[in-house]
Amino acid sequence: MARAPLLQLSGISLTFGGIPVFDGLDLVVQPGDRVALVGLNGSGKSTLMKVMAGLVEADQGLRVVPPGVSVGYMEQDPDLSAFATLGDYAASGLPEGEAYKVAVVAEGLKFNPQTPVATASGGERRRAALAKLMAEAPELMLLDEPTNHLDIQAIEWLEAELTATRSAFVIISHDRAFLRALTRATLWIDRGEVRRREAGFEGFEDWRETVWAEEDEARHKLDRKIKHEAKWAVEGISARRKRNMGRVRALQALRAERAGQIRRQGTAALALEGGAVSGKKVIEATGISKAYGDKLLIRDFDLRIMRGDRVAFVGPNGVGKTTLLKMLVGEVAPDKGEVRLGTNLEIAVFDQTRAQLDLEASLWENLTGDPLMKVSGASDQVMVRGTPKHVVAYLKDFLFDERQARAPVRALSGGEKARLLLAKLMALPSNLLILDEPTNDLDVETLDLLQDILGDYDGTVMLVSHDRDFIDRVATATVALEGKGRATAYPGGWSDYAAQRPVVVVETAPKPSVAAPSAKPDAKKAEGLTFTERKRLEALPELMGKLEAEIAKLSTLIADPDLFTRDAAKFARATTAIAERQVALAAAEEEWLTLEERNG
């Protein structure tokens, strides 16, 4: 017997500030669904998820959740005011005696439940919200950007947990590798319409382009029909026109249909202009070391960066990636060693904290108030790569409208703030670009464009990111900070590093303390696996089986001798996907062997 849906939306209509967000939306989430929710920044993804969670009430329509079905939502900005610690908040929805689940999840997400709410950062609060949802494990999980503020190790842990869960889930994420690994269906919000495709994120871009091509063809045919009917209306004999008023009304209906079609929102008009050509050698670091108190970040590290290199820096949160960046550009002095900068450097920095934005000022004021962008004597123009441009016109290049230009920056979404910072950054000439977590909150389309822009950029790029797919697409070299002062440079992007890296135990933040049981454990159990490791050991065989099945399926696909000539892009994607899964399978097998050996 077919099971009832976990969630059903029928005829949902919603308007914000007089602007329709959804109209007549129907949506069903079934048991076992693993859904990617995608769309441009500002298209309504988070709003739709809040409607699904019951946190936003629609103007019209019906939300149905069957009795007994639990729906959990990961809050972006949770209210923790009633709790003393992050752990108290994360455990607040659990039955008595199950608070241990928070400690298990906290170990994977790498945050301390004992952290006081008063001193917790925004990232720690979001991790607590994610821990709360994962510990509760509802039948339907609604996850809005769960990988933001997670390092790659924590993302991989979350990916493994969601792979093994029996819960259905809907995910909003900019992390394409994360979406590809987890999803089996895609919801695409486009101009108030929600389309569903029964396939994961892997083929989303091809599907989107096909839909848009069909839409353009239909619009072209409609324009030709309107032109033909309009010519008849002008040239027709009046008597004939009188007898054919139905045809005239049909023409009016065609024009109304054409006028009602919503123009697709374009992508931001990103462009980078290189400044003066830097010297061939951009940065050379020799034997640099850095420690803060007893914490050693970097020890005896050498690196040479040449003009045109794209270098990614990866590693756990708190391991020292941003500090290393600051040492390499001369902002922080190493304790030992030497950093030499090349000649004619013009540095532009994308700061992960968005500190370059004044949240209380308007978008207009953020641009015109910057002395590097200000046009002398003009209050409505900014200097864009040496050319004056009206501030509203420049903001429109980055998909902001005139109404938003006078609004405070604090009213923007995370993705819109990132886009505004890119607008400031890209107005200035540069030849060394520092990008510290640029991918957080950006939609997939803007990430694609940013990747293309970086590919054409004449200067040098240094990048900190936890987005594995973005690193693969951009980086020519990867510097891995592995803890205990270890930092190693590898050629290529994330996948190349993952294939080459040694198996190491990474030094991370101290694990959260868990109250000891009253009975003293025996020595054998103390030396065995933790609760999380035992759970991981149980989940690994299913994960390895899934990877083996995917590799077999992809191998069958590329075995087709005509595939390359018929669809070279598909062949390339399949080949890349096989390599990624083979690396993941090897890592899973190694992890299983290690855990099994320790388990005895």
Give me the secondary-structure topology.
Blueprint: E1 7-16, E2 19-29, E3 34-38, H1 45-53, E4 60-64, E5 71-73, H2 86-90, H3 100-109, H4 122-136, E6 140-144, H5 152-164, E7 168-172, H6 176-182, E8 185-190, E9 193-197, H7 204-235, H8 238-243, H9 245-260, E10 281-292, E11 295-306, E12 310-314, H10 321-328, E13 336-341, E14 347-350, H11 363-368, E15 381-384, E16 387-390, H12 391-397, H13 402-405, H14 414-426, E17 432-436, H15 444-456, E18 460-464, H16 468-474, E19 477-483, E20 486-491, H17 494-500, H18 523-526, H19 531-558, H20 563-566, H21 568-599
Parallel strand pairs: 3-7, 3-8, 5-6, 6-7, 12-18, 12-19, 14-17, 17-18
Antiparallel strand pairs: 1-2, 1-4, 8-9, 10-11, 10-13, 15-16, 19-20
Question: Care to describe what's here?
Answer:
The chain has 600 residues and is an alpha/beta fold. Among the domains are: 7-205, P-loop containing nucleotide triphosphate hydrolases (Rossmann fold, 3-Layer(aba) Sandwich); 281-346 and 429-500, Rossmann fold (3-Layer(aba) Sandwich), CATH 3.40.50; 523-599, Helix Hairpins (Orthogonal Bundle), CATH 1.10.287.380. A hairpin with a 2-residue loop joins strand 10 (281-292) and strand 11. Helix 3 (100-109) packs across helix 4, helix 7 runs antiparallel to helix 9 and helix 19 (531-558) runs antiparallel to helix 21. Mean pLDDT is 81; it is low at 504-527.
Briefly, what is this?
With 600 residues, the chain is α/β, with parallel strands linked by helices. The protein is built from 21 helices and 20 strands.
